[in-house]
Design the sequence.
């Protein structure tokens, strides 16, 4: 802004009275009432409403922000057994136990970025152009080509999701979210004044989408469909054919898709899971991803949005909206941006293969160990780092819910699993399968002992008996 314009702006601000009404050049408002000008003695306007007491309250957004996982976990009475070491299978962080370090090439890329002294200042709010091009090159394919302008760098995948919802939805709109599904979608939506409508996943079909139920949830205020593949919390991986059916529903109802694909490359051998964008011909998609899980560095907080527009439906306005939203925090860590080229180009395939091999082995150990436990029904995953286990709650009359079940599991066995009420889907619990193998075996043994103590064939739970 020029100095002339700055002066003009300041004059406008100086010539506003306490109620925001513009004054004329003589210090009088449009009704001709004189007000004290700059430099004159003035007294407070008598009718100005002053507060008599302190009234500092949290905003509506703060009050509407609620993390279901924290709400449930914080309300649980977690007192581990004093004679048994705690085994936490609840946190979706592959680095917790130190058995899955990132590759040396990833660390070296960060060191090189720091030593270059080129990444200590501000970057553009959407990320360095060179870094965005690196991401575009990595994910581009003939069916879904990408350029740097199609990439927005974000502070982790969670901010990518935040931005995608923010740019596509208004208060009063609703979004379609999988059930069970990642709790952050609901947390963000409700804080924005956006309604959440859940569509069911089918455990008997390896957590495929109930397509009929999905479409029944659409109305004239639905602005976005969220698809998570591979899934947190389910560990499921959709086939190409199933993804095409989801796209058909979205196309028929003119719904853009937020594709949460942070686990996109964590797919077990024998399974294939193409990106949604590579299959879409007419549905515009924002794919959200990041370094966290594939490269095992969730704390580095580097994510991205890949904009896959179709038929210019997003157009320039949505892209500009994303830029403006990014300007609120001025982009993610510049050091990690500077390291992206080295991370993408130098990480050996063997690192990824070893990680997947370990997670798949642990998932199979957990599934095999718990499949023979009366009252439990684990569902074998095909990717990500989670396994869902159904509880035949009627056979455990000591417990009224999955929350009760997992709370007592901590008390008696010092094993902490996440109750799936936190994912809007009761009577299951989720296990994270990235712990060391021996710890996985120990945890499964304790879960078996716990279930054998409380399982009662032919019995119903207390809640049912009281009715």
Sequence:
């Amino acid at each position: 802004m020029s100095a002339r314009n700055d002066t003009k702006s300041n004059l406008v601000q100086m010539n506003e009275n306490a109620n925001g009404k513009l004054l004329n050049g003589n210090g009088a408002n449009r009704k001709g009432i004189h007000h004290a000008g700059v430099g004159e003695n003035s007294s407070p306007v008598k009718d100005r409403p002053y507060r008599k007491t302190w009234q500092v309250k949290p905003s509506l957004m703060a009050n509407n922000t609620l993390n279901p996982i924290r709400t449930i976990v914080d309300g649980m009475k977690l007192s581990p057994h004093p004679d048994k070491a705690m085994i936490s299978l609840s946190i979706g962080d592959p680095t917790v136990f130190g058995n899955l370090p990132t590759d040396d090439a990833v660390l070296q890329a960060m060191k090189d970025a720091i030593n270059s002294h080129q990444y200590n200042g501000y970057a553009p709010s959407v990320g360095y152009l060179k870094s965005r091009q690196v991401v575009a090159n990595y994910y581009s394919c003939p069916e879904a080509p990408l350029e740097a302008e199609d990439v927005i760098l974000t502070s982790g995948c969670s901010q990518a999701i935040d931005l995608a919802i923010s740019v596509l939805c208004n208060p009063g709109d609703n979004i379609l979210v999988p059930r069970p599904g990642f709790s952050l979608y609901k947390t963000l939506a409700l804080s924005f004044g956006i309604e959440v409508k859940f569509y069911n996943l089918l455990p008997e079909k390896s957590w495929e989408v109930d397509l009929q139920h999905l479409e029944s949830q659409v109305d004239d205020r639905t602005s976005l469909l969220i698809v998570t593949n591979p899934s947190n919390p389910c560990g499921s991986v959709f086939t190409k054919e199933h993804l095409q059916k989801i796209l058909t529903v979205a196309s028929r109802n003119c719904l853009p898709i937020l594709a949460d694909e942070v686990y996109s490359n964590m797919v077990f051998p024998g399974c294939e899971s193409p990106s949604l964008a590579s299959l879409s011909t007419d549905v515009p998609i924002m794919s959200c991803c990041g370094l966290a899980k594939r490269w095992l560095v969730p704390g580095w907080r580097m994510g991205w949005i890949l904009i896959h527009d179709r038929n210019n439906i997003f157009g320039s306005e949505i892209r500009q909206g994303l830029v403006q939203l990014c300007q609120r925090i001025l982009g993610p860590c510049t050091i990690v941006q500077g390291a992206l080229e080295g991370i993408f180009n130098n990480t050996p395939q063997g690192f990824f293969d070893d990680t997947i091999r370990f997670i798949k082995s642990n998932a199979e150990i957990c599934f095999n160990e718990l499949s023979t436990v009366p009252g439990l029904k684990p569902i074998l995953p095909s990717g990500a780092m989670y396994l869902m286990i159904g509880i035949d709650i009627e056979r455990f009359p000591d417990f009224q819910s999955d929350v009760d079940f997992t709370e007592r599991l901590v008390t008696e066995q010092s094993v902490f699993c996440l109750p799936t009420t936190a994912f809007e889907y009761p009577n299951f619990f989720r296990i994270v399968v990235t712990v060391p193998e021996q710890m996985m075996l120990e945890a499964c043994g304790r879960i078996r002992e716990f279930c054998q103590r409380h399982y009662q064939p032919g019995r119903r739970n207390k809640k049912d008996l009281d009715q």
Observations:
- The CA atoms of residues 64 and 191 lie 5 Å apart.
- The longest strand covers residues 195-202.
- Residues 1-39 have pLDDT under 50 and may be disordered.
